[in-house]
Design a protein that fits this description.
With 972 residues, this protein is an alpha+beta fold. It is built from 37 helices and 31 strands. The protein is elongated and about 140 Å long.
């Protein structure tokens, strides 16, 4: 048994003499039933039967003094025969030897020096000089203290003479302390024990003591004798250990690291001494999110930039460290530039916990008590940090494992795992579903139970040879289910190695029947029009291109015609009836079109009210209706060898004739149509061009009135002649550098400061003057020259921005439009990216229109994502005028939305337009996207848009399109 230290000897001894009126051995047992085992390991029973351990553990030097003290003070009047227990030859009778007030009074009298200045006895000298145990005798004021009292509290005997005893105790316990003193001074004898009693030191700080008090007589009057021990550090350590245990508990029940940290800090808040907060830092130290009390801790409520600087200050402190201690307020003030005033932080601990995604949790635990976090409890704090690190890692790994297992279990693909002997150790739900076997039936078995019998031994030998060599094996396998049926899987089997040994084989497989069904569903979604069931524009181009590529005329009497049908004034139907009636009309209209054509013909809905048909026309193609009075004199026989023009004309006229006599929907609506026709291979050689030619012909027929048709013919069409003229101007503009841009600024709605500019294309013709896009843009966009022109625009914008930056101007972004065709052109896209990479922030903004997503939304979204990563801002132009779909609008990585000018102009008079503008702005805010209103021309429009929360304003009310030099003045 280890010997007690001197302070523990005295602790034991003094405790045994302070309980007046109690038996010695009972004093030992009852007083220290909870504490004594911690000191020397003896049980309650041991101390109830013997006091020998007291002498055994007291040092040899003081042994005789202790024995003499027992003889003289405790055992007066005791005969040898009455003593039944022995302490080094001195027997003690448990039934006779009581401690009374006289005994303690004598003890107290000799404790303090009397008037004759007689020296204390050796044992009392030990008590007086003891430094770790405080002793005080007091009434209303303190009468005596030992050196331990001075060491613990900081007060000397001279300093406490004038201090009332109540000034030492915390207000929480003051009433009880004063009541106990009053009772004792009246002579009441009782034991009082306090654990973690807060008392004040000389410097005003609070410490926590374990106190043992009893009533004694001192100089003929009752007084209180208290013995106490400083338990402050033990209490702090106990709380820190509780936190450690809580970390262990939470890590076993939590599945999310954020929730784990939040729950832990909520628990810490229950502690009366510790406070805490945390935030999540990005790899560069900036804040991902900040706990709500960060601003309360640091004095940064007024200026956001201060808050950020303090957060960076903390992050920088932890740049190379993961755990930092600040025992005192001085340490904190010397370490941080940020003012920590309001919280009165006296000691603190900073912890950095890196996460797998390169983020970090920054945790600060702090206390208003000095040295709460100090080097004395550094090992416990380090333990908390280690537990936190392991818990974060465990939760992340465990969560990832659960996510992975959940994904494997619920994926629609087949997942089967065997050991290296081929025995099944895991199957997911898809395996159970396809095979009809349960997990219990399959696990422990081999995949041979699924053999269909269609493959020979050589097939399996080749499979195992490949796998055992460490290489993956892929094939299509026909398997057999539990009921004897078969199913086909596309397999990929992977060997898994740990070290150099293959331990498992993992088989991933896809159900080909399900994949065929899925491909059909994808085709329907991607290529079919949801309303009518016909091919959509994209599907029509795909199928039409295949149709044309596979067309081989049997003789010169066969040609392919593209018929483009437009419902005349369809918007009237929507406006007069409703959009629901309009949809019903389109459904019935499509049914009629399908009835007029054969299954071999390609039919699609290529626009809102536009339908396209590709059909092979033969000499014997017949019509089902009487001839229309319309003729087509411009079609020449020598352009279509062997085909009588009347055959094509009659067929087109029969379509118009059919719709004259058909009432559509239950409303009985009759709607005229217009038709444009182009002929392959005479008018064009590919689906894109032949569709464009038919659209030109359609526009001619629409200008002629309802129920008219037109064929594409360059010699006949005035529009084509004009097109040739414009194409010539475009080509000259390219060669002679007539293309230029003007800039129209847009402004912040609140500050009215310039926020950006839009680049608008112009042709500066030496004779015709300034040509606006309305004159040439349609033809340019359908020309191959559009790519060269847009490259010129991009480079001009880049040069303007460089020039402004060189002049030291406060540059704002410049936006530009490009066509859908250019969006798919690699050269244009590379030019755009290279220009954007010239700058260290997004100064080039790309304006896109909704129509861009109609053909291939996945391609468009992927492309825009790449552009965003290349320092290019994205703006959605003319929002609300296309075929808006919230599913893709939400997915677009855009920075701003431009509200179309048509809604802005009508919003003062038209409530619907007003509400559309209101909804667009609200939606954009919810998506975190800025809004720009186009075409603002009046103060009333501006005021409404500002009230609705529109971010930016563009229009003549602020500024018209202007030259680059004039635009520069806004930046100066």
């Amino acid at each position: 048994m280890n010997k007690l230290s001197k302070n523990q000897d005295i602790l034991f001894f003094t405790s045994s003499i302070k309980y007046s009126g109690d038996i010695l051995t009972k004093v030992i047992a009852n007083s220290y039933s909870q504490n004594i085992a911690d000191f020397i390991g003896l049980s309650h029973k041991d101390f109830s039967t013997s006091v020998n351990p007291l002498i055994e553990f007291i040092s040899e030097k003081d042994r005789q003094s202790v024995i003499q003290f027992y003889k003289n003070l405790l055992f007066k009047g005791t005969t040898e025969q009455e003593i039944s227990y022995t302490i080094n030859g001195v027997r003690v009778d448990e039934s006779l030897h009581l401690l009374n007030r006289d005994n303690l009074n004598e003890f107290a009298v000799v404790w303090r020096k009397d008037s004759s200045n007689k020296e204390l006895s050796p044992i009392l000298n030990i008590l007086n000089d003891f430094s770790d145990m405080g002793i005080a005798i007091y009434r209303d004021k303190i009468l005596y203290i030992n050196k331990g009292f001075t060491n613990i509290t900081g007060y000397s005997q001279e300093e406490i003479d004038s201090i009332e005893i109540k000034n030492f105790f915390h207000k929480t316990f003051l009433n009880q302390i004063e009541s106990n003193i009053k009772r004792r001074l009246e002579g009441e004898d009782f034991l009082q024990t306090f654990s973690a009693l807060p008392i004040f030191k000389k410097d005003g700080s609070v410490i926590f003591v374990n106190s043992y008090s009893s009533t004694i007589r001192y100089k003929d009057n009752f007084a209180v004798c208290s013995i106490f021990f400083d338990e402050t550090q033990n209490i702090y350590n106990r709380y820190l250990n509780i936190i450690t245990n809580k970390v262990i508990h939470l890590s076993s029940v939590m599945y999310d690291t954020d929730e784990f940290i939040i729950r832990l800090l909520k628990f810490i808040k229950l502690n009366p001494f510790i406070y805490s907060f945390f935030y999540k830092a990005k790899p560069d130290g900036s804040i991902d999110n900040t706990s709500s009390n960060f601003r309360d801790i640091f004095d940064c409520k007024r200026e956001n930039e201060n808050c950020l600087s303090y957060q960076m200050d903390i992050f920088n402190k932890l740049n190379r460290e993961t755990l930092l201690l600040f025992p005192s307020q001085k340490d904190i003030e010397e370490s941080f530039s940020c003012p920590i005033i309001k919280s009165n932080i006296k000691s603190a601990c900073l912890i950095k916990l890196p996460l797998e995604d390169k983020y970090s949790y920054i945790i600060m635990m702090y206390s208003t008590i000095p040295n709460f976090f100090s080097y004395h409890n550094a090992s416990i704090i380090k333990s908390i940090y280690n537990r936190l690190s392991r818990s974060i890692s465990y939760i992340t790994t465990n969560n990832n494992t659960k996510i992975l297992m959940s994904a494997l279990e619920n994926t629609l693909d087949w997942v089967l795992i065997t050991d290296n002997m081929g025995k099944i150790v895991y199957v997911n739900k898809t395996v159970e579903k396809l095979t009809g076997y349960s997990k219990v039936e399959l696990i422990g078995n081999t995949p041979s139970v699924l053999k269909s019998g269609y493959y020979d031994k050589e097939f399996y030998n080749n499979m195992w040879k490949t796998l055992e060599s460490g290489n993956p094996f892929s094939c299509v396998i026909l398997n057999k289910n539990k009921n004897g049926g078969t199913f086909k899987l596309e397999h990929l089997i992977l060997p898994v190695k740990l070290g150099n040994t293959i331990t498992h084989y993992v088989a991933f497989a896809r159900d080909l029947e399900r994949m065929d069904k899925l491909q059909g569903e994808i085709y329907e979604l991607k290529f079919k029009d949801a309303l009518t069931g016909l091919l959509n524009r994209y599907g029509f181009k795909i199928e039409g291109s295949r149709f044309i590529d596979n067309f081989i005329p049997k003789d010169k009497k066969e040609v392919v015609i593209l018929i483009l049908i437009d419902i005349y004034n369809f918007s009237h139907i929507n406006n007069i009836h409703s959009e629901d009636i309009g949809d019903a009309f389109l459904i019935d209209f499509s049914k009629i079109i399908k009835s007029l054509f054969n299954d071999e013909d390609i039919i699609g809905r290529t626009g809102g009210d536009e339908f396209a048909i590709l059909k092979v026309i033969k000499e014997n193609t017949t019509r089902g209706y009487g001839k229309s009075p319309l003729t087509y004199d411009s079609l020449k026989k020598d352009e279509i060898d062997g085909i009588q023009k009347d055959v094509i004309i009659d067929y087109v006229e029969s379509i118009i004739e059919a719709f004259k006599f058909v009432r559509i929907t239950d409303k009985g609506i009759i709607s005229p149509i217009n038709i444009g026709v182009s002929i392959f291979p005479y008018d064009a050689s590919n689906i894109e061009d032949i569709l464009n030619q038919a659209r030109i012909a359609l526009s001619i027929s629409k200008n002629m009135g309802e129920n008219r048709y037109s064929f594409f013919n360059e010699d006949f069409s005035h529009g084509i002649k004009k097109r040739d003229t414009i194409q010539g101007i475009i080509l000259d503009a390219l060669v002679k550098d007539w293309f230029n841009i003007v800039l129209q600024p847009y402004f912040d709605s609140e500050s009215k400061e310039i926020a950006g500019m839009e680049a608008l294309l112009r042709i500066e013709h030496p004779e015709k003057g300034l040509l606006l896009p309305g004159y040439f843009i349609d033809i340019l966009e359908n020309s191959e020259l559009i790519f060269e022109v847009e490259i010129i625009i991009i480079n001009k914008i880049k040069n303007i921005l460089i020039s402004w930056l060189d002049k030291g101007l406060k540059v704002v972004p410049i936006s530009l439009n490009i066509t859908g065709r250019s969006f798919k052109n690699e050269i244009v896209m590379k030019t755009l990216k290279d220009a954007a990479d010239t700058f260290n922030k997004p100064l080039i903004k790309l304006e896109i229109i909704e129509r861009l997503f109609l053909e291939d939304i996945d391609y468009a979204l992927d492309k825009l994502k790449n552009l965003k990563e290349s320092n290019i801002a994205i703006s959605l132009d003319d929002f609300g005028t296309g075929y808006s779909s919230l599913s893709y609008v939400a997915a677009i990585p855009m920075d701003q939305v431009k509200i179309d000018i048509s809604f802005v102009r009508r919003m003062l008079e038209d409530k619907k337009s007003f509400h559309i503008v209101e909804i667009i702005i609200l939606m954009a805010k919810k998506l975190g996207v800025k809004t720009v209103a186009e075409g603002v021309e009046s103060e009333d429009q501006y005021n409404i848009l500002k009230t609705l929360g529109c971010d930016y304003i563009q229009g003549y009310y602020f500024a018209k399109p202007m030259s680059v030099n004039d635009a520069q003045k806004y930046l100066e």
